[in-house]
Every structure is written in C-alpha cells, then in structure tokens.
Amino acid sequence: MTQSPLHQILDHANRPDPYPIYAELRKTPVHHEADGPYVISTYHEIRSLLHDPRLSSDVRHLASAAHDPLAESGQEEQTVLPPSFLRLDPPEHDRLRRMANRPFGPPHSPHTVDGMRQELHDIVSGLIDGIGDTGRIDLVDQFSYPFPVTVICRLLGVPREDEARFHGWADTIAASLDPDPDADPAERGKGAHDARMQLGMYLAGLIEERRKQPRDDMLSALATAEGPDGAMTTMELLSTAALLLIAGHETTVNLVTNGMLTLLRNPDVLRRLRAEPRLAVPVVEELLRFEPPVQLLPQRTPLTGIRIHGVTIPKGASVWLVLASGNRDPKRFQNPDRFDPDRRDVQHLGFGSGIHSCFGAPLARLEAQLALSELARRLENPRLLEDPPPYRQNAVLRGPRHLPIACDGIRP
Fold first, then answer.
1. What φ, ψ does residue 346 adopt, rounded to 5°?
2. Interior angle at CA 119, CA 113 and CA 125, nearest 5
3. Structural domain boundaries in the chain
4. Cα separation, 163 vs 245, whole angstroms
5. Counting Cβ atoms within 10 Å, is residue 129 exposed (0-12), middle (13-18) or buried (19+)?
6. What is the rounded distance in angstroms from the CA atom of residue 307 to the CA atom of residue 304?
7. What keywords would UniProt list here (predicted)?
8. pLDDT at 226
C-alpha cells in the first residue's frame, strides 16, 4: 500500500532524502488528507502565510478536533513552562521578543553577537584540537553537538564550573525531541521531565543571583531590564532561556552537521572554502536554502478562513508550512536541487520569515561560518565513512544523529 505524502514525511526511512517527497507535494500546493493538517509546500504561498496576521502560532487557537500526526509520533516538544514568544501572537509575542532582543541585538545591543567572535573561534579550535583519533570521527558527538550548547552557556552566563551539568540536561532534553521506537516512552518522558525541572530550578536560582549581582551576560540583562515594556517575570525569563537552549542548540547542531555533510559531498566547494575563508558567508546562506535545519513549521492555525489556490483553510485547522520544500521550489530558484554557493538570489526560508523569523539567526550564521571554515582549513583530506549517515527520527529538526568521517590529520 502506497503511503500518503504526509506519512512519507514522517517515515524515518525517508529522512536521508525527503526532497523527492516535497517535489511530489508541490504538485498540490495545498495538500489535505481527511482530518489531517493542511500542508503548504510552495515558496510564495509559504512566504505569504508567514507574513499573514490571520495565521496564528498560538496552539490555543487550534480546534480541539485538529489532528496532529507529529504529537502521535512523539515528535512534538513537551514542556512544563508557559509558551515562549515563538508560540505566541501579537501583542504578547511582540512584547516578549522586544524584551529578549534588547541585550541580544540592534538597536540596543548591536555588538553582542560580533563581540563573541573570538570566543566562538576559541571554542571551535578547542573542539578540533580535542578530536583525537582521526581514523574515525563522529562529527556530531565530538563537534557539532557540544559547540552550540557551550556557546549558549557563555551567552546566558552559566558559570564555567556548571557547564557540564548544563550539557547533561541539554542532552536529555534534546534526546526527548527525537523519538526512539525501541525505548520505553514512559521512562524517556520521565527523564526529559526531570531534566526540564532540574534545568528550570537551576536557571531560576541563577536568575535570582543575577538580579542581586548582575554580570555582563544575557541572563543578567534580562533579569534586571526595566525598559518601556517593563520587566520579564521569572516564568517568562525561564521560557525565553529554554527557547534559546532548545531552538538555538538543536538548529545549530543540524546546520553545522548538514553543512559538513554537504561540503564532503561537494569536494570542489570544500577545497574553495579551505582556500577562501570568506566563502563561508555564501556557503552558509546556500546551506540554509539547500539543507535547512528546520524542515517544517507545524501547528499554525488560521484565526479566520484563509483561501489559497482555490482551497479555503478553515479557522482552527492545523497548518504545516514545509520550509524545506519551499526552498527547493523551481518556480522560485533555478536548479534548486543543486548546491551552489555562487547563487546570487538566496532569499531562503531557512530562518522562516515575518514576525517569527529566527531570533538567533545572527548567532547561528556566525557559529556555522566559523565552524565550517575551520573544519575545512584544519582537517586534512576529510572524507565520509557512511553515506548516507544515520539520521535522527525527528522530521521537523532534520539532521544526522551521527556523522562518521575520517581525515589524515589535524592542521595547526
């Protein structure tokens, strides 16, 4: 029996290459099966909806009868915290995002991300120095995974002596986002719940410390801010910190890993990057189009009926926006299945668009640029040991669970 496109997307067997499924989906720009979600797969329609105030990101607007295949497959995040601004609509979204952005980016803190450049470079260098045996390297476990969580610790202001504990909680929470058909769901759920509770209590304690004795870090700035929007409550601060950890960490792991996998499959580009470190900027932009770390945005819902391509999506229905499909839409990009860092027009959907465009995009870009340029420069004759590598179960945050590679040595 042939699977429906929706079930093909969720089927782990298709994780190494979902793009033929997306190509089939684009033949029906608004795809709907029985009581399932409305799946939007074409670039212009996705972009339009990302800017449409009638499409809500708040799951409380979903009709109670809305069918959610992701929740059934265990691929939806569970949390004990109130929704972050990512899952809210204006005006609540706008207030919290403005407050979170004050210590993170322009206009109030224009140099926060660029000011971390040397620290990021040092973290990357340290991880590469510590690789050890070059006959078999798991790029995920030894590099892509520890890199962004260390960066988030430094950004938030987690003391160095606590980083190992923070890493442990992050590992457990991240694992819970990736279903394991062989594991006991109750046991995994309890482990993830306990990790979230411990992380929440730790951060709540750190927030109180920073309110009394602020330091030069983002958590202190958020805990003591008294701007025009007032101050965040402790629960709002915890939700924002959790968003930075989960969204910022998981997406960057996939961006760096997918990036190195793509470069190893395109050795001419890898050689160019080694010789021209500045190529890292267009390489990362094309990667965000070609292999985006976030494949789709689920659980959007119309606040009123929205008509697209002759189909009316009713109020309260579940809508999926398949960003990765839009990024390969031939009506928007020439030769979309070709990885081309010289592509001149790369208005991709890799970071979304509109009011919910990725809050951490400047940091993620810099992390990926530094990581990939240093890996290209320092690894001698890198090569894949498995292609395709084993992929994570998660269909939303798509990336290899391991990336086994080898090289002939590490350059200084």
1. -115, 55
2. 130
3. 5-74+83-410
4. 13
5. exposed
6. 10
7. Heme, Iron, Metal-binding, Monooxygenase, Oxidoreductase
8. 80
Single-letter code of the amino acid located at 78:
Q
> Which tokens belong to 92?
């609540």
Indicate the Cα dihedral angle 320, 321, 323, 329, nearest 10°: 110
Give the number of other CB atoms < 10 A from CB of residue 384.
16
Eight-class DSSP state of 354:
G
Rounded to whole angstroms, the Cα distance separating 395 from 202 reads 30
Question: Which phi and psi (to 5°) does residue 319 adopt?
Answer: -125, 135
E strand or H helix that includes residue 261:
helix 234-265
* pLDDT in the model for residue 380: 97
Q: Do 77 and 246 meet the contact criterion of CB atoms below 8 Å apart?
A: yes
Kind plus residue range of the DSSP H or E element containing 78: none
Check residue 132 and give its pLDDT: 93
Helices (H), 66-108: 69-72, 92-101
Residue 372 CB partners (closer than 8 Å, separation 6+): 256, 259, 260, 263, 273, 280, 283, 284
Looking at the DSSP bridge assignments, the partners of residue 400 are 391
Phi, psi of 105 (to 5 degrees): -160, -175
Residue 4: DSSP 8-state: P
CA torsion, points 238, 250, 21, 18, in degrees to nearest 10? Answer: -170
pLDDT of residue 173: 79
Beta-strand relationship, 404-406 and 383-384: antiparallel
Tokens of 297: 């945005």
Cα–Cα distance, 296 to 38 (Å, whole number): 12
Low-confidence ranges of the chain (pLDDT < 70): 1-2, 65-68, 71-80, 177-183, 185, 188
Q: Which two tokens stand for residue 229?
A: 């929007």
* CATH value of 5-74+83-410 in 3.30.70.270, 3.40.640.10, 1.10.630.10, 3.30.390.50: 1.10.630.10
Please tell me the distance from the alpha carbon of residue 398 to that of residue 258, in angstroms, as a whole number. Answer: 9
Q: How many CB atoms lie within 10 A of CB 293?
A: 27
Sign of the C-alpha dihedral computed for residues 263, 267, 268 and 271 taken in this order: positive
Question: Going along 345-392, which residue ranges are E strands?
Answer: 379-380, 383-384
pLDDT given for residue 1 in this prediction: 52
Residues with Cβ within 8 Å of 411's Cβ and at least 6 positions away in sequence, in order, are 377, 378, 379, 380
